Amino acid sequence: MNQTYGYCRISTYKQNIDRQERNIKTSYPEAVFIKEIFTGTQENRPEWKKLYEHVDRGDLIVFDSVSRMSRNAEEGFRIYKELYDRGVELVFLKERHIDTVSFKEAMAGVVSVDINAGDDATNDLIRSIMDAVNRFMMNKCEADIRKAFEQAEKEVLDLRQRTKEGIVTAKLKGARIGTQKGDSLLIKKRDPIIKIIRERSRDFGGPLNDRELLAVLAQTEITVPKDSKGNTKKVSGKVSRNTFYRYKTLAREGDKLE
Q1: Which CATH homologous superfamily contains domain 1-177?
Q2: Residue 204 burial class via C-beta count within 10 angstroms: exposed 0-12, middle 13-18, buried 19 and up
Q3: DSSP secondary structure string, 47-61?
Q4: Distance in angstroms (rounded) separating the CA atoms of residues 151 and 17
Q5: 4-10 and 60-63 beta bridge pairing
Q6: CA 89, CA 5: separation in Å to the nearest integer?
Q7: Which stretches of 116-183 are DSSP H helices?
Q8: Helices (H), 60-115
């Protein structure tokens, strides 16, 4: 019996694997989820490697986007072709136009008929035209797939470059970068608050608007590190409106970063 898999991957603590799982589960509630967390290098994806070797003809793998399957366009296109040739179905929720089903439907329109025009010269001419059309359709479909992976790769690289440039600009203007004296508690509160934002903010599929979420944070106790020995303590989740929106921006950017 064929199986449907949902593959989710994050590379940094800023990313949100729950969002990917939620998106896939909405369309494919029967999916068996394979999760890859904090993959530091391109090769360090043991769960993907096991899934890639295990899937069989007729199985389906669902991704939130093409960037979850591969970190770069060249690798992504190669994997796509290999799985397609093995008969594995692929779905990309944010790029449905390159699902393997879409690819097959496009190729179904390729001309394929028996030719018998009455003489060999005419038959040869028609066959050569049909072969050219077939090659054109195949090349176009493959170009669309490659373009989707290239665009995903470009978006990640552009975001990283903008982040670096923003830090340089801020430093030139005298802004404080990194942890400063007196900021330690606020920094410790950052990750738990970002997690709550991702889980409960309406902008991430949750139930609360910004005003409601700020009120919830003010009434919430969160756990933060107390010392280097691994001890923890409870503190209020209350933050200023400016800090809240800064953390919300980090949550949003974390969803895009590889």
Answers
A1: Resolvase, N-terminal catalytic domain (3.40.50.1390)
A2: middle
A3: HHHHHHHH--TT-EE
A4: 21
A5: parallel
A6: 10
A7: 120-172
A8: 66-69, 73-85, 100-108
**Contact at 8 Å (CB) between 102 and 66?**
no
Q: Mind listing the pLDDT tens digit of every residue in the chain (258 residues)?
A: 899 999 998 876 666 788 899 999 999 999 999 998 865 545 578 899 999 999 999 999 999 988 888 878 888 888 998 998 899 999 999 888 889 888 777 666 555 555 565 677 776 776 676 666 556 656 666 777 888 778 877 766 666 676 666 666 666 665 555 544 444 666 788 888 988 998 899 888 889 999 999 999 999 998 888 776 778 889 998 988 888 888 888 887 765 444
Please, what is the end-to-end C-alpha distance for the chain in angstroms? 34
Residue 246 host element (H or E): helix 241-256
Strand order in the sheet with 4-10: 32-37, 4-10, 60-63, 89-92
Boundaries of CATH 3.40.50.1390 in the chain? 1-177
Distance between CA atoms of residues 81 and 110, nearest Å: 19
Q: How far is 20 from 26, CA to CA, in rounded Å?
A: 10
Identity at 31, one-letter amino acid code = A
Residues 16 and 251: beta-carbon distance below 8 Å:
yes
3-state secondary structure of 196: helix
Model pTM score: 0.54
